[in-house]
Amino acid sequence: MRVSKIEPCIDCGKRLPRKELNRARRCSDCAMAAVRDSMAQMHQKSGPYYEKWKENLRAAASRL
Ligand SMILES: [Zn+2]
To answer: pTM score, two decimals?
Structure first.
């Protein structure tokens, strides 16, 4: 039987089976916090998440 690999969450360092971490390697608590954080930044139109979003939008637009 294959045992799921244990990996640390990139934010809090909590060690969980890989399948319980999301694609960004965050546990569900940190994923929720990250969503809340990014929502707040989108609202304020500043911060690393907002900058990243703008970058992605620009990249997507240039592919059209
Ligand atoms: Zn975490």
So the answer is: 0.68
Is residue 17 assigned to a domain?
A: yes
Cα(53) to ligand 1 centroid in Å equals: 22
**Beta partners for 8?**
15
Give residue 52's domain range. Answer: 6-62
Residue 35's pLDDT band, with cuts at 50, 70 and 90, is very high
Kindly give, in sequence order, each residue whose CB lies less than 8 Å from that of residue 11, ignoring residues fewer than 6 positions away.
26, 27, 30, 33, 34
Q: What angle do CA 55, 57, 59 make, to 5 degrees?
A: 70
Count of domains observed in the chain: 1
Quote the ligand 1 centre to 42 CA distance (angstroms): 22
Q: How many CB atoms lie within 10 A of CB 10?
A: 13
